[in-house]
């Protein structure tokens, strides 16, 4: 058994990490536009520093990013040359509603995405579109404190409805919120949340998540009403937690870490809060403000499929003295059996097979891997070539794991590698942490020509797609 004939091979980017043009054609500021590169970055991302305005002297990578806004035609042509069946991107909410809650959408924003999706359609590429990929309009952060407020539900559903209507016939596959569970680990970058002194941070985060869950269910309802052929998915920052040892305390902790990751997906896929959530809320002193009708909305409008990112597995130990990995907001104990990337992310292809099986066993809904890739430092040789064999090796082994999972019985819709073209890394704000098949000439200080250049992995992935995953050697 191999990959299905209609398997959706492709690549993924996000508006806030690629488009640039951060105030062009009427676009408003978003949360990501306020997150600097450098030492203050993590304070802002974690919600410990409210970014009232830009900090003088700081570099804000999203402001130009790789200028996909002005290069999308040449970039999509390169994706088509690789043979992409699908292209995952996101819509910048503030490009449609600059402050997030205007009475009418910004027509220039509508025009940009219409043209971009038509460009995909020209090459037979199916767009897979995320409505909110970590970029809440700053107007809503300032007015409502972002997803702390229930007012956000109406703002989001209005925005979603405009997108479903304006791009009907151009987009069929939708995701509501990118990596919804990340708001637990990186509240400002995940959901635009900053904290006030004395707040119960767990209460704030889970209440914000409840608002997002209701908004996601209502968006799913609207999508199906506008066009019954629309398919709406949720999106998880995935990766199973392994117990560090067979100590029952390690096993129990790993189970609870997985539950923490999966709680919101449980709601989006099953339509209700899982039974274990009640104990979590009790122990964290969380009292959700659930309005009449909320639970019925969640029950009636679950998602059609489950998408997730996978970069690494994770490891849990009850021993507080165990060493932790570097580089990711979702903390993990170091796994002695795994190698790591240049940024300390643990490389575990078998973990992808394990994660696929665990998710499919749990939900029995189609799965879609919408992010997977290796952030690495690429060097240009004297002849201009970029030999990224390490990236090919990483992706090859993960594709093998996907094939194994399909043979296990997992219903897998597609696979979009993360950062199919180099972009600003969400974790660190760096350009030097490169993921793409296409090199973009830009450095961490924002300098460069933005010239595009194919890497060795470009031709390799083209052959993978041509063979429907059968030819993995170069």
Automatic annotation (TrEMBL):
InterPro entries: GH, GH_1_N_CS, Glyco_hydro_1, Glyco_hydro_1_AS
Active site residues of this protein: 371 (nucleophile)
Organism of origin: Coprobacillus cateniformis
GO molecular function terms attached to this record: beta-glucosidase activity
The protein, known as: Glycoside hydrolase
Alphabetical list of Pfam families matching this protein: Glyco_hydro_1 (PF00232)
Keyword Hydrolase recorded: yes
Assigned protein family: Belongs to the glycosyl hydrolase 1 family.
GO biological process, one term: carbohydrate catabolic process
Any one cellular-component term (Gene Ontology): cytosol
Keyword Hydrolase appears in the UniProt entry: yes
Keywords recorded for this protein, A-Z: Glycosidase, Hydrolase
């Amino acid at each position: 058994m191999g990959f299905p004939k209609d398997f959706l091979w492709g690549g993924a980017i996000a508006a806030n990490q690629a488009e640039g043009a951060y105030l062009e054609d009427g676009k408003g500021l978003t949360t990501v536009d306020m997150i600097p590169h450098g030492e203050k970055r993590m304070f802002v991302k974690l919600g410990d520093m409210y970014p009232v305005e830009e900090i003088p002297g700081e570099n804000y990578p999203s402001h130009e990013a790789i200028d996909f806004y002005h290069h999308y035609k040449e970039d999509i042509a390169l994706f088509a040359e690789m043979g992409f069946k699908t292209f995952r991107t996101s819509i910048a909410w503030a490009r449609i509603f600059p402050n997030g809650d205007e009475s009418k959408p910004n027509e220039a924003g509508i025009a940009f995405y219409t043209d971009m999706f038509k460009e995909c359609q020209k090459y037979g590429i199916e767009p897979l579109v995320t409505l909110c990929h970590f970029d809440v309009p700053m107007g809503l952060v300032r007015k409502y404190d972002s997803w702390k407020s229930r007012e956000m539900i109406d703002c989001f559903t209005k925005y979603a409805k405009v997108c479903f209507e304006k791009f009907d016939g151009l987009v069929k596959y939708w995701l509501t919120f990118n990596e919804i569970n990340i708001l637990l680990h990186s509240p400002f970058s995940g959901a635009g949340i900053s904290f006030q002194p004395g707040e119960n941070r767990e209460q704030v985060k889970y209440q914000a998540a409840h608002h997002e869950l209701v908004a996601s269910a209502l968006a799913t309802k609207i999508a199906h009403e506008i066009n019954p052929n629309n398919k709406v998915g949720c999106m998880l920052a995935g990766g199973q937690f392994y117990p560090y040892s067979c100590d029952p305390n390690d096993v129990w902790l790993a189970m609870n870490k997985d539950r923490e990751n999966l709680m919101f997906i449980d709601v989006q896929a099953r339509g209700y809060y899982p039974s274990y959530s009640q104990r979590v809320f009790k122990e964290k002193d969380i009292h959700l403000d659930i309005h009449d009708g909320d639970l019925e909305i969640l029950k009636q409008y679950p998602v059609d499929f489950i998408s997730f990112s996978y970069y690494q597995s994770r490891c849990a130990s009850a021993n507080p003295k165990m060493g932790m990995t570097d580089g990711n907001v979702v903390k993990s104990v170091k796994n002695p059996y795994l190698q790591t990337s240049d940024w300390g992310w643990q490389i575990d292809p078998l973990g992808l097979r394990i994660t696929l099986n665990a998710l499919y066993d749990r939900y029995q809904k189609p799965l879609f891997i919408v992010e997977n890739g290796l952030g690495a430092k690429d060097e240009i040789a004297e002849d201009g070539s970029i030999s990224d064999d390490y990236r090919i090796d990483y992706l090859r082994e993960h594709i093998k794991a996907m094939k194994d999972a399909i043979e296990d019985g997992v219903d897998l819709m597609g696979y979009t590698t993360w950062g199919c073209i180099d972009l600003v890394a969400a974790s660190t704000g760096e350009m030097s942490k490169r993921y793409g098949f296409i090199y973009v000439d830009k450095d961490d200080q924002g300098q460069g020509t933005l010239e595009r250049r194919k890497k060795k992995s470009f031709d390799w992935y083209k052959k993978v797609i041509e063979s429907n995953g059968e030819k993995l050697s170069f």
